[in-house]
Amino acid sequence: MTSSTTTAPSATQSATTTGSNVATRGDSALVSSTGRTTIADTVVSKIAGIATRELQGVHAVGGGASRAIGALRERIPGASVNHSQGVSVEVGERQAAVDIDIVADYGVSIADLAVGIRRNVIAAVERMTGLDVTEVNITVHDVYLDEGGDDEQAPAQTARVQ
């Protein structure tokens, strides 16, 4: 991960840092006078992905291409599930921003689902990392319709064609 240096502290940084260079908010464990803790992007994306999948109404996480690659990956014996699939993050020293792509189940309120995802992701990331989550952007790529198995539709299509 590359780090960038800013010349002027942001309003958040100046409001949360005291003269002894120890943060006064919940992120004091990350940057202090005794050292610095760096959290990798993959850690935050994995936490956000797991927190998203915990909610009822989320059928899948990721857009079409990432879900296709994930499906291929799951077929490999011994391969683990990619919990950060469909999640991209930007992580700074004290803050993180999260973008999540999902497929929602048909019938759920997408607005309520988005509120629940934001609440769950912010709580999990802030609790586990100490980072302040500035935003959680959600893109709904599709709605999943549970139309039953293909076995039920095949006889109807065959009978119609005959």
TrEMBL record:
Residues 1-20 have a biased composition (Low complexity). It comes from the Bacteria. Pfam families: Asp23. Residues 1-28 are annotated as: Disordered. Belongs to the asp23 family. This is Asp23/Gls24 family envelope stress response protein. It comes from Antrihabitans cavernicola.
